[in-house]
Structure formats: C-alpha cells, structure tokens
Amino acid sequence: MNGQLIISAIVLGLSMSGVYFLLTVGLSLCYGLMRMISLDQFLYYALGAYMVYTITAATGSFWLGALGAMLTTLIVAFAVERLINKRVYSKPVMFSMILTFGVNLMGVGLIKYIWGLTPKPVASPIGGSLHILGTSVPGYRLFVILLAVAVYIAVQYFLNKTILGTAIRAGIDDAEKVEALGINISRLFTVTFILSSVLSALAGVIHAPFVMVSPEMGMSITAFAFMVVIIGGLGSIKGTMVSALIVGQVVSLGAVIWAPLAEMAPFLVMMIILLIKPTGLYGSKLMSR
Amino acid sequence: MKRFVNSWTGIFIVFILLYLLKGLLPMAFLTEVVIFSIYAMGCSFLIGRLGLTSFGQPAFLAFGAYGAGIYLYYFGTNSYVAILVGVLASLVINMIVGTFLVRLNSSYFTLCNQAFCVVTFFIFQKALVKWTFGDNGLLLISRMDPTPVIDLTSSKGIYLFSFIVAILVWLFFNYLMKKSVFGATCLCVKDNEEKLRFLGYKTFNIKWLAFVIANTVAGLAGAIYTVYFCMVNANIASVSSASEAVAISMLGGAGTLFGPLVGSFLFIGLKDIVSQFISHWEVLVGFLLIIVMLAGEKGIVGSLETYLEKRKARKKPVATGVV
Amino acid sequence: MGRPNMVEVRSLNAAYGQSKVLFDIELNIKPNERVAIVGRNGAGKTTLLKCMASLLTPTTGSVIYEGTELVGKRSYEVARMGLKYIDQDKHVFLDLTVRENLELSSYATGDYNWDKVFKHFPKLKILIDRKGAFLSGGERQMLMIGRAILGDPKVLLIDEPTEGLAPSIVDDLVTTFHELSKDCAILTVGQNLSFVSRVAERVYAMKEGKLVAEITDEAEIKNNSYSHYL
Questions:
Q1: Which of A24, A242, B262, C126 is most exposed by smallest CB count within 10 Å?
Q2: Where do the domains of chain C lie?
Q3: A30 part of contact set with chain B, CB < 8 Å
C-alpha cells in the first residue's frame, strides 16, 4: 500500500460522497417535511443517468444532456407526486415506502422496456487530470466534488435564507401549523418533492460517467444511500453531508484494504453508530416520531 | 362465511382445494406457490401485525437456504437434516441480527433491513466465495439421498412435504394471531408502541420475538427452496427480489391468514403468465403495488374480511356509544 | 344585538372513526365579540375549533364565515380568509427565530406590518433573533398570537390560551384579549373559569360533545355561576 494509492482512494471517496449526498439529500428532505420515505428517488437517479446517456448520444453534449435529464425528471416527478404520492402523505411511513417502492419497480420495468438490458456507457465530459501530491487525479472527479459542495451550499442557502426554505424548515417541525398560518402546504410538498427528485437525477447524471448506465443501477446504490441517511439521521441536511463523507471514505478506503470490505465496512460503521445513537448522528428525537 | 375465513378449519379446506388443483395446474407452479406462501407468511406478519416493513426478506431466506445448502454440500446427504440445519442457522442469525435491528423505529428498521440484505448478498457472493461459489452457487443434485417416509428428492415428495409444513406454519400463525396474548401485543406495538410501554410491556422483547419467528419461517422456506431446486446461489439474497415478499403480502392482504397464499398464487401466476408476453414483469408488480396501496392497502383477503365483517355488523346493528 | 353574525356554525357533527365527538353544534360569533367555550377535558372543544378552522372535516353541518361556507375548504384558505386557529400546545417552530416565524406569517398573508405585533407584544421585538426552542411558555404564546394577527384576521380561534402559563402572564393576556377584540372577534376555549370570566362577553358551556347552555348575562359570567352545566 503506497501513498499514491491512498490519495487517489481518498479523492475517489470524496467524489462518491458527492454522488451519495446528491442522492440522499432528497430522501432526507422528503422524510423531514412529508414524513415519507421516497424510494422512487432511485428511479429518478436511474432516469437521470439514462436521459444523459440518450441526449449525449444524440447531441454530443453532456451538459445539454444533464439539463435535459433534470428537466425530464422534473416533469416525471411532478406527475408522480400529483397523481400518486400526495395520497399517502397523511398515512404512516410504511405506506409511502411500499407505494414508492412500487413506483420505483414500475419505473425500472419501463426503463428496461425503453432502453433494454444492455449497460450503456457515458463518456466523461471533462478529460485531463491534475497532479495532487504527485498523484494523478482525473479532472472529472474533482468537478464532481466541487459540484456537490456547491449544491450543499445552495441547499443550505435555500433552506436558511429564503422564505420558501423557512417554510420547509417550519414544516419539518410541524406541517399542520404551517398550514394554519395560511401557507399552502400541499404546494410546498410538491416543490420539495420536485427539488429532491431533480437532485437525485443530478446524482444519476454525474454518476453516469463513473459506472455503466444499467436498469439495476438504482437498486445497487440503494444500500449505500440508506446507510448514508441512517448514519446522518433522517431529515438532517448537515447529517446527510457528514455521513456521505464518512461512507464515501469507508467505501473507497475499505476497497483498498480488501475488496469485499467496500460493501461491508459502511454497514459495520452504520451498526456501530446506531448502537451509540439509534437516530443517527444528527437525527433528533423529534425526527424519530 | 366469516367463520370459514377466520377459523383454522378453513386452512384445511383451502389446502384440500389446493391439493385437488394439482390435477389442473402444473406441479412446479403449485410447489412454488406453497413455498412462497410460507416465505411471505413472516413478511405479512411483520407488516400487518407489527407495522415493520421488511424489504430485507431475501437475506433471511438466504440464511435458511445456505444453511441447508452448506450442510448438504460439505457434511451430509439427508435432506431432512439439511432443512433442520437451515432453520437452526437462520434462527441463530435472526436472534443476533434482531437485537440490532429491532431497537430502531420503523423507518430506520426498513432502511437498515434492506441495507442488511445487500450486505448479506455481498457476503454470500464475494466475501465467502471460497465456500459458497458466489453466483455459480452450490450444486447439490448428486449429494442428496432419497429420504424415508416422504422422498424429498422427488417432485411429488417435496410438494407433499412443503404442503404439510405450510399447514403447520399456518396453524402456528393462526394460533399466534388469533389466540395468543402475544399476537394482541404485536398489534398494540403497531398501533401505539409508547402506550404499550407505559402499560409495563417491554416492547423490545415483543418485537424481537416477532422478528425472530417471522424470519425463521422465511429461513424455513429458504431451506425447502434449496432442497427443491437442488442448488443455492447468491442470487437468492439479491435485493431486486426484495419486492417479492412485500408484494405478495400486500397483494394478499398483510396480517391476514390467507393473504400470503392468495398473494403467492396471484403473484407467481401473474409472473408466469406476464413474462410470456412482456419480458419485464416489474412493471406489473409495481403497478399492482401502487393500486393496492391506493385502494386502501388491505389487499384481497383483507378487503374480503372487512366486507364480511361489515355485512355481519349490518345484520346485527351495534349501538354506537356516546364518547 | 342587531349586528349580523360573522361566523355561524350550523348543526355541526364530527366523529373520529366510529366514535362521535360533536353533536349538532349551533354557535355564532359577532364582529369584535369575545366568546368563550368552557367544558371539561374531552368535551370536544378542541375538535370544534379544529372543525371551524378546517383542520378537521366534520361529518355533517356547515360553518359559515361572512356568507361563505368553510367546510370543505383547505385550512390555509380559511386562514387567508381571516379566520385563524391558535393551537393549545404552544408549539412555535423550534428551529426558526422569532423573526422567521413572523416572516412566514407575513409571507402567507402578504402583511408585512409588524408594528401591530410589537404594539401588543413589545417583548417580541427584543427577542427577535431568538430561536423558538429557547422561548418560555409565555413568550411562545405571545409569538403564536403575534404571528396570527398578521394579515388582520377577523376571527381568532384560541385554544386553551392559559394552559401552563404563570398567573402574572395570564393577567397580561386578559389585557391583550381586550385590546385584540378592538380589531377582531375572539373565540377562546378553556377550563380556566376565572380567566374566562375576565375576558368573555358570552360563554357557551359544552358537555360531552354538545353545547348545553349559552350564558349572556354579564353577572352570571362574572360569578362563574354556570359551572353546574359542566
């Protein structure tokens, strides 16, 4: 084991953290505000990856693909929320889980139907590499890390400095009272859901050049996403960020030590954290209701 | 009619019907339905009676399956012993895993459970690849001797066996859900865990026991599955099949006695039929899940029970008290 | 009194599942009136208020506010129309500062005139950057009422305003209620009869989901001589 290997593992871990963060911030927001576990976020993740593949193949521009993927997801998520998801907000978490799992399953089936089972490659839009401490680091990975940081700052700004964000934070506390003030909570739910879904799609878009785009990609990232939200605590954006960092590093450094550790080590970390704090690092008692 | 749906004699009637169906439907289909109904029983119990949604069910199926598989591959040739080993293995693992998972509230439970399932899949596929041969799996066909009384290596024998096991499991769950205090406390956990705690119950113990029972039954199904297919590979724990147990439970009606059987029958039947026309049956399963959840989450048997109860209530009007 | 009713509740029934909680409620509020509903725990007072604010849907009956039917409307629409409900649990948004709490209400109603809030509750101006989690019970009650009066509501439905508050703060609340009623009608609910006797012009007694008496006589209200109804 040498220094270069470790540095490149750390950078890889950071870029994975970026993907995890973008994917789980939606799960966390949806749980916080709507008290739902939105498993269909994984569908939007896969959809984002497929749309970026399709549009990139057609137009040659990854960035146009990214934009198209996010717009498509916006429309799909809006339709799903209005037609299906909004009916279970008032019910226990279990309902939303099974329902959105059904949505996810149906969507994955449709993806298989449209794009087939063959994995599709997406070329990295940023070539070249930088040298950090004598280690060659692909430029695209650095871009992913920066993008995730930018999204984190933007989400924090949105939640803390804008009136809509304030309403979302208030709704996380008690949605009924936000409505009693005269705010249309149902519209707030829609906005939050679409925001979450678009971020999930962005996760799929930026993850696509790392992996092959396949129908099961949503399924295979599920476990890591769950570990991230659990370690961080459902409903906490800061917790999601911190635990995405932890899980990213554990995955990539674990893989350096022994390949199967990549999957098992984060699970062990999660179990240890849950033993100490059953609601995750930043999850409050309030959230465990 | 009500009595038929709820009483244990119903179980026998249903199974006699199922046995008679043997002439009409392929044996392989019926065997699969019966094994799946055992498998889904635990999941249905967890969802319907405890309010714990378990998307990690394949992991618990896999423990039983690998318990039986590893015994047959490395140690013995007797299928009865293999099933027993599978059940014991899953019992021990469930007791350990349960202490970790059951402490969590229901949202965290579900997420951890599915994460656990993925980890189990990787353990069997990669970490223990020396012993489990990963995706290729353990091939047991030459290692199983014919067993006395019921020959588990014959297709007829395994059908009869799983049939008998299913009846026993169902009688057990019938007792658990309808007759025992434990079943009642489980429902209380689903309804309001905190209040039950105030009453002096240790809810951890209730949930833990329910978790162990439900998942050991899944392990039993896994062990029978191994013997039935004469092989076991890592795919049995794959998350993509995590939907099956939940879908069957919801379709049939979670927490009902006949839900798993009706659900398995429909699910496997639809899967067989649909996959002849379109290759991606997920669309249909997803669609059915959405419909069941939006239509009031009771499933087929659940809706039937409610309907019968309502009809009974209409015959004998009960005065609604003033609160 | 010749004034037209501002709010009229007509034969309102409500139930939680199988169990009925409200039976044929008939109630009216006139502009700038201070009305109280008194009753024991579980009499259905909170349910009635929540039905009026559309937070719960009654099984039958209607709530007419300035000629408009409220049953079936969403609760945010009701709040924007000027009928605001203030919960009994003194729950302000814990993660939000006083300023953000007020901003949220201003955003909902389009009324950014905070002076009237500070006129009633000068203390809120000092606490403006404090988070809800660090406010005392009395301060929370001030903030709940303060953010509700943004948007110039015509009716305030205040649930158990005195619950858990120190006597001196209750005295302040009496003054506040009198001042508030210059601009809007108040329907309050409570078990604190001495508080009710000091603020209410009219009292409804509620028992087991029914309004059993309406007391309009000032002396009777002053002397709490209606307690035999409860």
A1: C126
A2: 7-229
A3: no
Task: Report, in this order, helix, strand and coil percent for chain B, each rounded to 5.
Answer: 80, 0, 20
Chain C residues with CB inside 8 Å of B323's CB? 19-21, 42, 208-209
Q: What is the dihedral of CA B154, B157, B158, B163, to 10 degrees?
A: 160
Classify residue B41: in a domain, yes or no: yes
Closest partner CB to C107 (pick from A163, A177, A180):
A163
Number of domains in chain B: 1
pLDDT at B316 over 60: no
Q: Which chain C residues are Cβ-neighbours of A182 within 8 angstroms?
A: 76, 79-80, 84, 105, 108-109, 151
- Which CATH topology does C7-229 take? Rossmann fold (3.40.50)
B322 touches chain C (CB under 8 A): yes
Range from A1-15, A64-78, B30-44 that averages highest in pLDDT: A64-78
Mode of pairing for the β-strands spanning C155-159 and C83-86: parallel
pLDDT score, position C202: 87
Residue B275 lies in a domain: no
pLDDT tens per residue, range A123-151: 888 877 777 777 778 888 889 999 999 99
Helix, strand or coil for residue A184?
Answer: coil
pTM above the 0.90 mark?
no
Domain containing residue B101: 13-239
Residues in chain C: 230
Contact between A35 and A192 (Cβ < 8 Å): no
Is B13 at the interface with chain A, CB within 8 A?
A: no
Question: How many beta-carbon pairs under 8 angstroms link B with C?
Answer: 13
Distance in Å, alpha carbon of A240 to nearest chain B alpha carbon: 14
B280 chain-A contacts, CB cut-off 8 A: 109-110, 112-113
- Interface contact flag, B320 C21, Cβ < 8 Å: no
For tokens 């009771």, the residue is: B298
Decide which of 1.10.3470, 1.10.1740, 1.10.150, 1.10.12 is the CATH code for A3-288.
Answer: 1.10.3470
Task: Read off the pLDDT of each residue in C163-180 and give the average, rounded to a whole number.
Answer: 85
Let me know if residue B304 belongs to a domain.
no
Q: Which two tokens stand for residue C185?
A: 């009608």
Select, from the ranges A83-97, B69-83, B96-110, B206-220, the one with the highest average predicted confidence (pLDDT). Answer: B206-220
**Mean pLDDT for all residues in chain B:** 81
Residue C191 scores a pLDDT above 90: no
| Domain contains B288 | no
Mean pLDDT of B289-315: 77
User: Considering only CB atoms, which chain B residues are within 8 Å of C14?
Assistant: none
- Is the per-residue pLDDT at B274 higher than 70? yes
